User: What shape does this take?
Amino acid sequence: MLKRSREYPHLLGEGGGQAVRMEEKDLAFLKQVCGEQMDQPMGLSQVEADEEGNLIRVEGILRPYSQKIVRKRLRKRYVLAEVGLFGRQETVLFGICLPGDRIWEGRR
Assistant: This one.
């Protein structure tokens, strides 16, 4: 069904939306962040920051987009990054974990 759905335009946006074709790179991004079958929630990326809040190390699904971060909320454990999706730039929220977080220990 997924393979067939790529053949048809999809509606995006609020309200009426607009029809856009799902490209291979869009599908590759979705598989990267949600698993090959796209049945997993987006995982957390490990990041380390200096005292000023600048990211000095980025691992996980955020890594390819680390130079496209437009907003950081380290205390709230997320960053926003610009990602090329559906023929335009979309702002995507990436969950993060920092050293000292309980979940960090299981990821290293």
About this structure: The helical segments are 2-5, 24-34, 102-107. The two ends are 36 Å apart (CA to CA). The CA atoms of residues 102 and 108 lie 11 Å apart. Residues 24-34 form the longest helix (11 residues).
